[in-house]
Amino acid sequence: MERPELPLPQLHAFVVLAEELHFGRAAARLGIAQPPLSQQIRRLEDKVGHALFTREPGRTTLTPAGRELLPAARQALTGVADGLAAAREVGSGRAGRLRIGFAASLALTVLPGLLRTFRDRFPSVHLDIQEMTTAPQLAALHDRTIDVGLVREPPDHDPELAFQTVLTEPFVAVLPSAHPLAAQHAVRVEQLADSPFVLLPRAVGPPLHDQITNLCTAAGFTPRVTQHAVEWQTVCALVETGLGVSLAQQSIRRIRLKGVAFRKIEPNTTRTRVAVAWRKNDQSPLVARLLTTLNQGQPDTP
After folding, report:
1. Which stretch of DSSP H or E encloses residue 172?
2. Where are the beta strands (DSSP E) in 86-147?
3. Per-domain residue ranges for the chain?
4. At a CB cut-off of 8 Å and minimum separation 6, what does 138 contact?
5. Comparing C-alpha atoms, which of 250, 194, 198, 191 is closest to residue 219?
6. DSSP for residue 245
7. Which fold has domain 8-92?
8. pLDDT of amino acid 299
9. CA–CA separation, 201 vs 198, rounded Å?
10. What percent of the chain has pLDDT over 70?
11. Ranges for the HTH lysR-type domain (predicted)?
12. What pLDDT is attached to residue 1?
């Protein structure tokens, strides 16, 4: 049997009358005259197929059918009110779910402060944080499986994506503490020519990998890579064991290992760029809120 649709205005009128049990007082609460209230109740009774109130001179009471309907009517109105409130929160960017991709190294720079500030401002927003390198982030943005990406070395142009630079970082030399060059305040890149290198595989981050190898090429040598690691924490750990040296973005210095020394490099003109990425046609208020938070609390460039 098909269930009749119960319009919300009729349910509202019914609940108010059930609470007042007086047509005059109920009409006053609803801000309408008594005849329209009576019409609303009659229409609802027609849909139910039974009387909801007994009407006697000076007295109005609920029928068994009315008593049965009252809890469900209140629940329906509460559910709609809650749904409207939730929709307003999501529509205003104060609630909902925001999916953020980030390059692992950004956990050492902009990410913690951004997430902390955003959560403080919008505690009802659920943040779905996904660690991935730049290329998978760009693919995920195109596939709409993330909403915002925090990437290193974004492409110069993408017809569907927008990019905004968050910060730029210089490079540093990553050395075992016992390495002779660790005694220097700064290191010339060519001084690393005879040392084995520990680097991320190019597939993990082609632009960053190419920047590092180009630094070496400009200094007159090709780095002799003897070890690869997919995480910068692992790169530093391998350097600490003496398996090689590395070049990395300056924020790597926040990985504190006793056996690793970080030194400025000279000349120090190359910088790696960190950017926030999002879909140009994305009208989500949550994305707009995140971008505003990022712009208001943008970190100083290292």
Report:
1. strand 161-176
2. 96-102, 125-131
3. 8-92, 106-297
4. 149, 151, 154, 155, 158, 161, 277
5. 191
6. B
7. Arc Repressor Mutant, subunit A (1.10.10)
8. 43
9. 9
10. 92
11. 6-63
12. 41
Among the listed residues 168, 235, 153, 150, the one whose alpha carbon sits nearest the alpha carbon of residue 198: 235
Provide φ and ψ at 6, rounded to 5°.
-110, 105
Q: Measured at the alpha carbon of residue 224, what is the angle toward residues 221 and 230, in degrees to the nearest 5?
A: 125
**Sole residue written with tokens 């002779």:** 180
Lookup result for tokens 């009409």: 27
Could you give the maximum distance between any two Cα atoms of the chain, in Å?
105
The pLDDT tens digits of the residues spanning 240-281 come to: 999 999 999 998 898 888 899 999 998 777 898 999 999 999
Residue 158 buriedness (CB in 10 A; 0-12 / 13-18 / 19+): middle
- pLDDT above 90 coverage of the chain, percent: 48
Q: What 3-state DSSP class applies to 36?
A: helix
Per-residue pLDDT, averaged over 140-166, amounts to: 92
Contact 189, 265 (CB under 8 A): yes
* Domain 106-297 -> CATH class: alpha beta
- How far is it, in rounded angstroms, from Cα 13 to Cα 27? 8
Three-class SS of 180-235: HHHHCCEEEHHHHCCCEEEECCHHHCHHHHHHHHHHHHHCCCCCEEEEECCCHHHH
Helix (H, G, I), strand (E, B) or coil at 33: coil
